[in-house]
Specification:
alpha/beta; Pantoate--beta-alanine Ligase, Chain: A,domain 2; 2 domains; 6-stranded parallel β-sheet; 3-stranded antiparallel β-sheet; binds pantoate
Length: 284
């Protein structure tokens, strides 16, 4: 496995790979890897000739500086994990390689309502930061496909929209969320949960699952209200529970009229913010 830190080296190296006729699968990450990330590498390896993974804790997507400071960083372990699943190249740039002085990396893209709801509402500026870094990484890597986890459903929707708007020749592949045995969605933030909160954290997945069947008899708003109550256990503070159209991310008014329904939630467990979602109705 190759480990590169400089943008120019990366571009030169990948030019050769493309000249050899190989297709490139790309997994952008912020490190602190877990099996969920490794499943993205697996999928990319099945689909593509060459798998690139980036590790970069992107400061521009953290609306809360405390969250950026506390974000777990485990570079040595990450590199070993990626080597163990056969990633071909890891790109681990210092900030100056992603945001070199003088280079305009800001984005001139409007996401309409996609970044105004849910994460966008509670983390202002977050998605502009995500889009900025992913666009820059796509420019550097030039991948044929980008592999992203469903846990960040809104992020996937937004990046699909960005790729479409900018006409970038890259496919976006959304891969299923990996879960712990008790249902908690795997996340780099889980290591920050105290043992007591970790034990209760499956409440997110349990609630997303338990409320699904209510859709037949209740209005989405009633279900949201019920779910917020169910999530309000000691130590936990839900921010939102929304039942949305999977394409527009707008609230579902009439479940019978929508063929793509996703329930999404964000909950504070102590000082750790957890998110999760479940696709309740899928067009495929
Ligand atoms: O999902 C993440 O880890 C990040 O938002 C991403 C896509 C790597 C951009 O920094």
């Amino acid at each position: 496995m190759y480990l590169l830190k400089r943008a120019r080296e990366l571009q030169q190296f990948l030019r050769t790979i493309r000249e050899e006729g190989k297709s490139i699968g790309f997994i952008p990450t912020m490190g602190a890897l877990h099996p969920g990330h490794l499943s993205l590498v697996d999928r990319a390896k099945q689909d593509r000739h060459f798998t690139v993974c980036s590790i970069f804790v992107n400061p521009t997507q953290f609306n809360d500086p405390k969250d950026l400071d506390l974000y777990p960083r485990t570079p040595g372990k990450d590199i070993r994990m990626l080597a163990s699943v056969g990633a071909d190249l890891v790109f681990m740039p210092p900030p100056g390689e992603i945001y070199p002085p003088g280079l305009k990396t800001g984005l001139d893209v409007s996401f309409g309502l996609l970044d105004k709801v849910m994460e966008g509402e509670f983390r202002p500026g977050h998605f502009q930061g995500v889009a900025q870094v992913v666009k820059r990484l796509i420019n550097l890597v030039g991948p044929d496909a980008l592999y992203l986890g469903q846990k960040d459903f809104q992020q996937v929707a937004l990046l699909r929209n960005m790729v479409q708007q900018l006409g970038l020749p890259v496919r976006i592949v959304m891969c299923p969320t990996l879960r712990e045995a008790d249902g908690l969605a795997m996340s780099s933030r889980n290591v920050r949960l105290s043992p007591e909160l970790r034990e209760k954290a499956p409440i997110l997945f349990e609630t997303l699952t338990a409320t699904k069947d209510m859709l037949e008899d209740f209005h989405p708003e009633e279900i949201e209200h019920f779910a917020l109550g169910r999530l309000s256990i000691p130590g936990f503070k839900p921010e939102y529970f929304e039942i949305v159209d999977g394409n527009t991310l707008q609230p579902v008014e009439d479940a019978a009229q929508t063929n793509y329904i996703v329930a999404c939630t964000a909950v504070w467990a102590g000082n750790v913010r957890l998110i999760d979602n479940l696709i309740w109705k899928s067009p495929d």
